[in-house]
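Progress narrative, Year 2. Work on ABC-2 type transport system permease protein from Paenibacillus typhae advanced from sequence curation to structure prediction during this period.
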Amino acid sequence: MRALIAYMLKSYTTSQRFFGPVAAVVILLLFLYTYKPNPVMGSYAATGVILFIGCAWMGISFLNHEQAVQRQVTIVHLRSSIKYSLGGILTLALLTVALALLMVVYPLLTGSFAEPAGLYRVTVAFTGHLLLGMLGVSISLFLQASWVPKSSYATGLLLIILILSISGLKLAELIPGPVVPVLLPPAALLMNALMKTDEWSMPAVLGTFAHALIYILLLCGVYLYRSGRMDYGRHL
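Result:
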């Protein structure tokens, strides 16, 4: 799996498709901390949203960067489309960790906060960023070119999902019941947890994080299952 991840990282960076989403994340990060000082968790909630959108964009660009022929050659070499798909998820997770670290550490190094952040808030911020980033990645898995051939449809669907996810708390007020919290990606819940870290108890924050983690794992699990079914179908 290490060799596969190394290959995918090299292939993605060589294609230069990574530049758009990564550059956008970095530029927005620098712009946000242009003025000082800033509130700790409010700023982290804002950069969390940036990472959520950036990682969704990065996921699409990563999943679409490899040519179909080369993709098939790699799958044949691995003898499993599930291994290939899992390698893609792990590669995107590695890139998400790097971006999450950047988003959390940068304001600490530049003294951008109005007060000391503290270990607890930094830990919560990093975990929240990582979950938001992987949530964006898990959404992008189902919108890659091999699943949604028309890029215009994929882009439109992605934008709709991202907007609905970010406005999830408002939608929950308009549509009472469990439908919105269960079906909609919990980006708004994670943002709210970051914003209210100082007010909420640790179990409340961890509960929100657990909800998001389960959602991410379910999406990734469904994606890997469908990848396996497609692999099975090709061998019939």
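Residues 232-236 have pLDDT under 50 and may be disordered. The radius of gyration is 18 Å.
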